[in-house]
Amino acid sequence: MPDPSDLKQLQEQIFDLVARSQGAVLDAGRSFTDSVSNMTPGDTSSVDELIDRAFDLTERVLNAQRDFAKQVVQAATKPLTSDSGDGGHGDEDDGNGDT
User: Fold this and answer.
1) Distance of alpha carbon 62 from alpha carbon 84, whole angstroms
2) Which letter, b or e, does each residue of 50-69 get, where b requires 16 or more Cβ atoms within 10 Å of its Cβ?
3) What is the DSSP code (8-state) at residue 88?
4) For residue 35, which of 27, 22, 73 has the smallest C-alpha distance?
5) Domain coordinates in residue numbering, the chain
6) Which residues have CB under 8 Å from 88's CB, separation 6+?
7) pLDDT band for position 1 (cuts 50, 70, 90)
8) Inter-helix orientation angle 4-37/44-82, to 10°
9) What is the average pLDDT across 26-55?
10) What is the Cα–Cα distance from 65 to 60, expressed in whole angstroms?
């Protein structure tokens, strides 16, 4: 079983990474808002393009978060699933003729 201090450190690293990525998304949202507020009223073609870009960015961020969540679960459960309780030897042939 993993050391509790290792798990706590992993949780803190994950939290830090999530917080930084959320900050980046907020910055992107602010940039989008600034771009829209600087536009000429009635120029809907630019607004449409900005909306498309904002949703494309959101889709990419969401996909990245999905992949990240899957990787976190994989990394967190890998040590648990790879230890089958037999000292890590599994069904390996130890060369002594016993099977």
Assistant:
1) 35
2) eeeebeeeeeeeeeeeeeee
3) T
4) 27
5) 4-72
6) 82
7) low
8) 170
9) 77
10) 9
